[in-house]
From TrEMBL:
It comes from the Bacteria. It holds the Pfam family PadR. The lineage of its organism: Bacteria, Pseudomonadati, Pseudomonadota, Gammaproteobacteria, Nevskiales. Residues 7-80 form the Transcription regulator PadR N-terminal domain. InterPro entries: Tscrpt_reg_PadR_C, Tscrpt_reg_PadR_N, WH-like_DNA-bd_sf, WH_DNA-bd_sf. Residues 94-175 form the Transcription regulator PadR C-terminal domain. This is PadR family transcriptional regulator.
Length: 197
């Protein structure tokens, strides 16, 4: 996956300027793929040179002219070809997990504060996702059908945030009690899912 594909996906949904696209990375797709304004503009330049997107210049009275991009048929073909490619399992890079791994060297009070802050941050994100979900379910059936795939990515985000919150609370409690986990995680998951490990 590259920024190229994320931008093509966004432009396939709706044309937009570089600014518009950068704003879309602030929500929706931005919940699972990040890009700065500068990265978006650089990628648009490449996509335009490769004829995967094209733009129209819109004149603005008191601002610089605006380029509004749209995906080309070549861009859509590229996007469809990419969708057929298998995805490799993503590797995790988490500073927090590295800190937990090295927690024996940490000040327990400071680590507890950091975990509390992370929990609060993830709870805030979960509240934002809950509001997005509420809006989805308040829409009519036709709108929900159109938004089904973005909603399924939102469900992934909800599970992600909830899982992090639960895990961090568990770590916080185990550290506070200076305790060991009582059961293997796979056993707990199997019991929750009513399956045999």
């Amino acid at each position: 996956m590259s920024l190229k594909h994320a931008i093509l996906v966004l432009l396939d949904k709706k044309p937009g300027s570089g600014y518009d696209l950068a704003q879309r990375f602030g929500g929706g797709i931005g919940n699972f793929w990040n890009a700065t304004h500068q990265q978006v503009y650089q990628e648009l330049k490449k996509l335009s040179a490769d004829k995967l997107v094209e733009f129209e210049v819109h004149t603005q009275a008191e601002r610089p002219d605006k380029k509004v991009y749209q995906i080309t048929s070549a861009g859509r073909t590229t996007l469809k070809a990419w969708l057929k490619q298998p995805i490799k399992l993503a590797r995790i890079n988490s500073t927090l997990l590295v800190k937990i791994y090295a927690a024996h060297l940490a000040d327990p009070v400071e680590l507890d504060k950091e975990l509390a802050q992370h929990i609060a941050n993830h709870e805030q994100k979960l509240l934002e996702f809950a509001e997005m979900e509420r809006l989805y379910f308040s829409a009519d059936a036709a709108t929900r059908r159109k938004q089904r795939m973005p909603y399924l990515t939102l469900r992934s985000g909800i599970r992600y945030e909830w899982t992090w919150i639960e895990w961090m609370k568990e770590v916080k409690q185990l550290l506070a009690d200076d305790a060991l986990p009582e059961k293997p995680m796979m056993e707990l998951l199997a019991a929750a899912a009513k399956i045999k490990p």
